[in-house]
C-alpha cells in the first residue's frame, strides 16, 4: 500500500536533506529517499558532499596540513619534534569518523523535524491523480505517493573515455579519499578543485605529484591574478603542472599506471605513477530515476531541465543541485533546496547564481564571488581594482602565513562591488563578507568605512576596499 506525503525528496545530499527539512518546517508531511550506504550497509545520508566530497576531503586536508606544519614550520615557533611520523591508517580512520558524525547528524535532523526517511533508491513509477508515485528499492521496498517531488540526485565523477574507475589505481574522488598509504608517485588529470585538494594532501605527506591539465592555463575560471599567484605558490610547494596536454591513453595493466599524452608543443610523453586521480568534472546523476515513466525532460548532457525557479517540465516536480544547471557546489544545492520548499509553500524563495561563492581548500585557500577582471574586460565594463597583500597584515604575520592577497573589483562610476577574489589564509571564511556586501549592492567604500577588528585577517578585506580608491593605510 502506498504511503502518502505532501512532498517526497529523492536524494539526501545537501540539496535534498536541507530541502526536506525546510519543507517540514513549513508544515508539510515530508519524506526523503536516499540510497547511500555506509561500510556496514546502513544509511549514510549527505550525498557526495558528506561521503566522498566536501567533508572527507577537508578532514584529510586538515590532517595533512597539521603534518606539514609540524614537519616544516613548528621550528619557527620554537617547537621541536623528534621522529615525526604520519599514521595514514589513523588519518583515514579519523576522516571516516568525521563522515559518520555528519551522517548521524542528518538522521538526527530528520527525526527532529519529523521527516520520514527511506533508505533505498527512489524512482518514478507513474503519475497519479494529484501527484506522483515513487518506488523505493532497498532492504525494504516501499511505494510513496506525493503531490510535490523534489529531485536532488546529485552528480557522478566523469571518467576518461575508455578508462573506467577501478578505485584502486585509477581513482575518482571516492578512491582518492581511500588511499591507504602514501604513493611514491601520484598522477592527477585535471587541475580543478578535487585535483588540487587531493594532490595537496598527498604532496604534503611525501608523494611526488604531477598534474596534467587540458586547458592552456591554470584555473581559468578564477581571476587571472589569483590564478598566477596560486600557480607560483603551488609550484614552489612541489606540485608539478603541465598544461595544454591531450591524453592519448591510460594503461593500468601493470603494477602502476602509465599515462600517454601529447604535451603543449606536440611532443609525445609518458607519465608513470603508482596511482592516478582523474578529476575532469562531473555529470548529472539520473541513473535509476526512471524519468521516462513520467516524461521528465533531460537536456543533451543528461541534466534535468529546469527554469530559473527549479521547476521541471512536469507540474509539481522540481530539481535542485548538481542534477540541474549552474555550479556543482553543495552550498548552491542547499540554497535551491530551501528556495524550492518555500515556493511550494507559496513563498518567494530566491537564489542568485551570480553570488554563489567558489572555494578551493588548498593552502593557501582560494575563494571568490562575482565577476573576474577578465570577465569585466570582455564585457566592456568600466571598473576599478584594489588589492591588499596579506604580507602587510599583522595577524597574517603572527600566524606565519602571509601568502596571497585580497582583490576588489568595483564599478568605475557607482563603486558597486562587482567581484572579490582572495588567495590566502582563511579565504573561505573571508569571502562571506563579500557575499553579504554584494547581496545588498554595497560599494567598496561601504566596506572601507566599516570598522574591522584588529588584529584580524578581515582587515585585509577593508584595506583592499580602500585600495579601490588608492588609499590603503597599511601598504
From TrEMBL:
It catalyses: N(6)-[(R)-dihydrolipoyl]-L-lysyl-[protein] + NAD(+) = N(6)-[(R)-lipoyl]-L-lysyl-[protein] + NADH + H(+). The keyword Cytoplasm applies. It is an enzyme of class 1 (oxidoreductase). Keywords: Cytoplasm, FAD, Flavoprotein, NAD, Oxidoreductase, Redox-active center. Transmembrane segments: none annotated. Its cofactor is FAD. It is found in: Cytoplasm. Its EC number is 1.8.1.4. Residues 5-337 form the FAD/NAD(P)-binding domain. Residues 356-465 form the Pyridine nucleotide-disulphide oxidoreductase dimerisation domain. Binds 1 FAD per subunit. Coiled coil: none annotated. Belongs to the class-I pyridine nucleotide-disulfide oxidoreductase family. The active site is a redox-active disulfide bond. This is Dihydrolipoyl dehydrogenase. It comes from Sphaerotilus microaerophilus.
Amino acid at each position: 500500500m502506498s504511503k502518502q506525503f505532501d512532498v517526497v525528496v529523492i536524494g539526501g545530499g545537501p540539496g535534498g536533506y536541507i530541502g526536506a527539512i525546510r519543507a517540514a518546517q513549513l508544515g508539510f508531511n515530508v519524506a526523503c529517499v536516499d540510497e547511500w550506504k555506509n561500510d556496514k550497509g546502513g544509511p549514510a545520508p549527505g550525498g557526495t558532499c558528506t561521503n566522498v566530497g566536501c567533508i572527507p576531503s577537508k578532514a584529510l586536508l586538515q590532517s595533512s596540513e597539521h603534518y606539514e606544519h609540524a614537519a616544516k614550520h613548528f621550528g619557527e615557533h620554537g617547537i621541536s619534534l623528534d621522529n615525526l611520523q604520519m599514521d595514514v591508517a589513523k588519518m583515514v580512520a579519523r576522516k571516516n569518523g568525521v563522515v559518520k558524525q555528519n551522517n548521524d547528524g542528518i538522521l538526527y535532523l530528520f527525526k527532529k523535524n519529523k521527516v520520514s526517511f527511506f533508505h533505498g533508491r527512489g524512482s518514478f513509477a507513474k503519475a497519479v491523480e494529484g501527484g506522483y508515485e515513487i518506488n523505493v528499492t532497498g532492504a525494504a521496498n516501499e511505494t510513496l505517493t506525493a503531490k510535490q517531488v523534489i529531485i536532488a540526485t546529485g552528480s557522478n565523477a566523469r571518467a576518461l573515455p575508455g578508462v573506467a574507475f577501478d578505485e584502486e589505481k585509477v581513482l575518482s574522488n571516492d578512491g582518492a579519499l581511500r588511499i591507504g598509504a602514501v604513493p611514491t608517485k601520484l598522477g592527477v588529470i585535471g587541475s580543478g578543485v578535487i585535483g588540487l585538494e587531493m594532490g595537496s594532501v598527498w604532496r604534503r605527506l611525501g608523494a611526488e605529484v604531477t598534474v596534467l591539465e587540458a586547458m592552456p592555463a591554470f584555473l581559468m575560471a578564477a581571476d587571472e591574478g589569483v590564478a598566477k599567484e596560486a600557480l607560483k605558490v603551488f609550484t614552489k610547494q612541489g606540485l608539478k603542472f603541465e598544461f595544454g596536454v591531450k591524453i592519448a591513453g591510460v594503461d593500468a595493466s601493470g603494477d602502476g599506471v602509465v599515462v600517454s599524452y601529447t604535451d603543449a608543443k606536440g611532443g609525445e610523453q609518458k607519465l608513470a605513477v603508482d596511482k592516478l586521480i582523474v578529476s575532469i568534472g562531473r555529470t548529472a546523476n539520473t541513473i535509476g530515476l526512471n524519468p521516462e515513466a513520467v516524461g521528465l525532460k533531460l537536456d543533451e548532457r543528461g541534466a534535468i531541465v529546469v527554469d530559473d525557479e527549479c521547476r521541471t517540465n512536469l507540474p509539481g516536480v522540481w530539481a535542485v543541485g548538481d542534477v540541474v544547471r549552474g555550479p556543482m557546489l553543495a552550498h548552491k544545492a542547499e540554497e535551491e533546496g530551501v528556495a524550492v520548499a518555500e515556493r511550494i509553500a507559496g513563498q518567494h524563495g530566491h537564489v542568485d547564481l551570480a553570488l554563489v561563492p567558489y572555494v578551493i581548500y588548498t593552502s593557501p585557500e582560494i575563494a571568490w564571488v562575482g565577476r573576474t577582471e577578465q570577465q569585466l574586460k570582455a564585457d566592456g565594463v568600466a571598473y576599478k581594482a584594489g588589492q591588499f597583500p596579506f604580507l602587510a597584515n599583522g595577524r597574517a604575520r603572527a600566524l606565519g602565513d602571509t601568502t596571497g592577497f585580497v582583490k576588489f573589483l568595483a564599478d568605475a562610476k557607482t563603486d558597486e562591488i562587482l567581484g572579490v577574489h582572495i588567495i590566502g589564509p582563511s579565504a573561505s571564511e573571508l569571502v562571506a563578507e563579500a557575499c553579504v556586501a554584494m547581496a545588498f549592492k554595497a560599494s567598496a567604500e561601504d566596506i572601507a568605512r566599516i570598522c574591522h577588528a584588529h588584529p584580524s585577517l578581515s582587515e585585509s578585506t577593508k584595506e583592499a576596499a580602500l585600495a579601490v580608491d588608492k588609499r590603503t593605510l597599511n601598504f
